[in-house]
Every structure is written in structure tokens, then in C-alpha cells.
Amino acid sequence: MKNSNTTSDSSKLDRKTIERNRRIHMKSLCFKLISIIPSKYLKPSKDMLSQQDQLDLAATYIKHLRERIEKLKGKKEQTMSMMSSNQNNNNNRIFNIGSKLPILEIRDLGSGIEVMLISGLNKNFMLYEIIGVLEEEGAEVVTANFSTIADKIFYT
After folding, report:
1. Distance between CA atoms of residues 101 and 99, nearest Å
2. Which position among 33, 53, 97, 99 has the lowest Cβ density within 10 Å, counted as fewest Cβ atoms?
3. 54 C-beta neighbours (distance < 10 Å), count
4. Handedness of CA 37, 38, 39, 41 (dihedral sign)
5. Under 8 Å between Cβ of 87 and 117
6. CB contact at 8 A, 156 and 116
7. Sorting pLDDT into bands at 50, 70 and 90, what band is 23?
8. How many CA atoms lie within 13 A of 44 on its CB side?
9. In a 3-state reduction of DSSP, which class is residue 38?
10. Which tops the pLDDT comparison, 63 or 138?
11. Strand order in the sheet with 146-149
């Protein structure tokens, strides 16, 4: 008889220990979750919130992030379609420029700039001179390329 009671008692202790560890783990996960939510989304008394309130705030914040992602995806698609149509217009304009050469185009890319020079085969431009001017102005040239298409030379 004693043997079965001892087994029963030890299994109860094991279950209690497992449950206690599970609760401690869940509490630490809830704390970690609430700690990564920006303070502007929390109520003024962060310490006074119950775990349920903390989980509700986290769910609200996640919904806010999803909505923001959707808005940004929409903006990206809109910008990409505008860029695509602008690129088509630029390509048509570049190949129809004829005697308006040379053309210097500078694009602001946020963290850098892109410089494109289009010249004719008869007009001699030294790429190193253009790079020298850019470096004198404080720019760091990361890549420099050129290609010849028909009677035009494209320097980028």
C-alpha cells in the first residue's frame, strides 16, 4: 500500500513542479512580449497592467503593424508602377534624343546618387574626368560602368 501512495505523491509533486515551471515560463514570455512593444502604445501605468491587459495591448499593436505593412505594400506597388512607367518614358526619350547630346542625369537614391551621362560616339568624354569632379565634391564612387548602344555611349 505504501508503495502506491508514494508513487501517487511523487506524481502529484511532478505535476505541480511541471505546472509551476510552465507558469514561470509563461510569465517570462509575457514580460518579454510587453518589453518589445514601444512605450507610446502602452498605457501610462505599464506595471499596473494585468497579464490579460498586456496580451490585449500586444494583440492591438500587432494588428497596427499588420495594417502599416499593408499600407506600405500599397505605397511600394504604386511607386513601382510609377517607376516602371517613368522608366519606359525615359527609355523612349533616351533613344530618341538625337542631336541633344550630351545628357547628364542625376538621381537622388536617398543614401547616394546615380549619375548617368549619355554622349555620342563622336563626342569624347573621359569618364575619369567626371569621376574626378564627383570625388572633388566629396562623393565616393562605388561603381562606374559604360556601355555603347547604337551611336550612343552610356556612362553610369
Report:
1. 5
2. 99
3. 17
4. negative
5. no
6. yes
7. very high
8. 0
9. coil
10. 63
11. 103-108, 113-120, 152-155, 146-149
